[in-house]
Structures are given as C-alpha cells and as structure tokens.
Amino acid sequence: MDNFDVIVIGAGPAGYVAAIRAAQLGLKTACIDDFKGKDGKAALGGTCLNVGCIPSKALLDSSKQFWNLSHSFEAHGISAKDAKIDVGTMVGRKDKIVKQFTGGIAMLFKQNKVTPFFGKGRLLKDRQVEVTAADGSKQTLAATNVIIATGSVPIELPFAKFDGKNIVDNAGALDFSETPKRLGVIGAGVIGLELGSVWKRLGSDVTIIEALPDFLGVADADVAKTAAREFAKQGLKIELGAKLSKAEVKGNEVNLTYSAKDGEKQLVVDKLLVAVGRRAYTDGVLADGTGVKTDERGRVIVDEHCWAGVEGVWAVGDCVRGPMLAHKGSEEGVMVAEIIAGKAGHVNLDTVPWVIYTEPEIAWVGKTEAQCKAENIPYKTGSFPFAAIGRAVAMNEPAGFVKVIAHAETDRILGVHLVGACVSELVAECVVAMEFKGSSEDLARIVHAHPTLSEAVHEAALSVDKRAIHKAN
C-alpha cells in the first residue's frame, strides 16, 4: 500500500491548489481525480478549468468581440457590414484554452512532485483512500492527512432532465455546434446570466425564467436594478417569479410550461439550459465508519479551518459551507496545507469577492445595504457613476457605478458593490482595503491614477462623506 503525508481527493481549484501547496511545504502528496476531457482522456482542473470558469470566459470574450463589432464599433468610426461568427472556430478556441490550462496543472504536478491518480477516490476508515480506475480496478492508498475536495455538480430538475442535446447543463451550453435560434434558461444566477449573455450576443433569442421574485437577490439592490436595466437594453428577456413545471422534448424543440405572475405560460425553445444551482458532490465519497458527517445539503461539515472533525481529515471548496467560488476553494486548500505543515492558516469568508462576468460586469465584497439594515448596523453610503469617469466614457462603456458602504460610527468599510466595465478587476482594491480593516477615508485618501476606471472607487469613497469632486453631493 502506498503511503503519503497528504492525499487530496479532487483536482479542481480547491484540490489541485491544496496538493501543490502541500508538496511545496515538503509533504509527500497525491491527488486523485476522475474528470475526463472532451477527448475522453484524464483532465485535471475539475469543473472550473474544464467546463466552468475558464471555458465560459473564453466564450464570453469571443461573444463580446462579436457584439461590439456588430453594435458598438460604429461609435468609434469603425464599420463592419454583415459581420459573421463561426461558432465551431469559437468553440475550438475555447477547447484549446482549456487544454492549455489542464495540461499546465499536469506540468505543475510534475514539477512539484505531486503524484496523480486517475479514478474515483473514496475515503475509508483510518485515512485510507480507495481509488477506482475507469476500468474498474481498485487500489488502496494511505495517508496521514486526507483533504476532500470533490467540488459540486449541477442540480437537475426531475421534470427537465439533462439529455446532453436539447436540455443541457453548463457543460452542454459551452458546446453548441451553432447558435440556437431560441434559447431558454432556467435560473437567473451567475451561470444562467453568463451563458445566456454569450448566446444572446451571437443572435439567439434568449428567455431566462427565474423562480425568485427579485432579480439577483444576493447582490446589492441598486446593483441588481442597474444590471437588469442594462440586460433589458441588450434584449435579454428575464421573467421573475416564474416556476417551470414541465419541459417536454418534441422533435428538435423543447416545450416549456411554467407558472408566472399572470398565470400559466407556454414557451417553445430550441435549447434549454437548466442553471438552477449546484450541489456538493459527495455521493459515494465517504465509506461507512469514517466518522465524517455531512449536512442536509450533502456538504461535509467542517470548522472554520476546514477540519472535518476526524483526525487528519479535512474538506475544502464547493463540498463545504460558504460560497461556491473557485478562489474561495483555492484559498481554503492553501490554508489546510499550511495548517498540516504546522504553519498558520486562515481564510476570511467575509472578504471573499463575487464576480458575474456579464456585460456590464457585476462584482461585490462584504455586506449589502439590506444586510446592514437586517443586522441593525449603522451605516453610510457613497456612490459614483461611471458616466462621470473620463476613461469609461472614452471606452464607450459609461454604464454602472461603484457603491461603498461604511460603518456610520467607525467608518470601517462594510461592503463595496460595483457594476460596470472591468469591475472584476476593480473589486480587488476593495478586498485589500477591507482585509486590512480599512475605512472609506483610507480609500478616499489614496491617489488613483487619472484617467482610469479605478477613479470611480476613489470618488465613491469620497462620496461616503459627501465630498466627491466630480458629482453633486
């Protein structure tokens, strides 16, 4: 039986990062994963690199270029009549990027002496791990520490089961061979909005059906309102308070039945993307007698340091509490590896940034205004529009704003909420400020280069104390 200091089950952003960091710290490390790429071969990187974060951003960028060419470049004096896009080439570019990054992880494993095992990992008693290969053969490994990082999988609706052709999950929506004339999307969350945006930009008639009554209820209300208005301008149809009850495939069409505010409705689409969320993937991962417990949602129960309550067993990423975000999982992986090596490790879940890569982008960190009200926290706010930022106007992307929420008494930053061009990058400054217990005055007194989009963060911080320079307070 092979023995390791650390065995990681799962090679997504949480798992592969944990494995690399453990190996860097001198620990004999193995990493188990059973993900296969489009070519049927083992592919490291989990959902994120193979069918999630990376490929979706590739398609978002390609579709944005096409949309700008067709709709925005005329304002710059650039004309391009009858612009066309080859979907096959676009998807091929995406696949090439995916292969580059999954291959990159394999190289990093080799450089850091991480031993990969390809198959399904299952935790047994006493920190032994069973690996079942694709051909059904089994082997057992042992470790001083085991890190469970098995990630998450799409939630499937019983009346709209995935068939990989007409009714698809996020992976299927990344691989359409042509732009569907009519695309239905169930769920107006991150995945639904991003992939709905991709195909809308390429000419699809997209309808998003969302069961909740409020749009992007997890985001700040002002941000959600602005984003909804911009999406409507783009022709993205979003129906709120609508619940799907039936999805029936007839020929090459999907017939939908759903209840809306004004009664039952019918919708016929060519493709249906079901994006109602994800669930922790822990099915079959824990053998009887391990002592590891899961909650009602299948997530491994852990403490603030991701310890699973059993000696030498840890869990990180999407399969534990907290937001299902790649960067959150990666930082948990680093934390656990460092704790195992006898070092300090910590992840502050209160300063984990969120990003939705639509157009405009949406990003935030910390508390929303509604949360502050619900928790009876005294607060003050300041905001500033990109329409008053020279760089944004010069880029022809004036939509959106930055909003800073600070404690009314201490001025400590409680949250920052952004919608607009490149806010996925701008939010990092706000995360740093919050992590160092910064105040809105700290942000306001930092010199920001001109002309840049970051000036919106500066002016929003100034606006908290009614002293923004480039707008009326």
Automatic annotation (TrEMBL):
The keyword Ribonucleoprotein does not apply. Keywords: Cytoplasm, Disulfide bond, FAD, Flavoprotein, NAD, Oxidoreductase, Redox-active center. Residues 4-333 form the FAD/NAD(P)-binding domain. Signal peptide: none annotated. Residues 352-461 form the Pyridine nucleotide-disulphide oxidoreductase dimerisation domain. Its cofactor is FAD. Gene3D superfamilies: 3.30.390.30, FAD/NAD(P)-binding domain. It is found in: Cytoplasm. Its EC number is 1.8.1.4. InterPro entries: Class-I_Pyr_Nuc-Dis_Oxidored, FAD/NAD-bd_sf, FAD/NAD-binding_dom, FAD/NAD-linked_Rdtase_dimer_sf, Lipoamide_DH, Pyr_nuc-diS_OxRdtase, Pyr_nucl-diS_OxRdtase_dimer, Pyr_OxRdtase_I_AS. It is an enzyme of class 1 (oxidoreductase). The active site is a redox-active disulfide bond. This is Dihydrolipoyl dehydrogenase. It comes from Dokdonella soli.
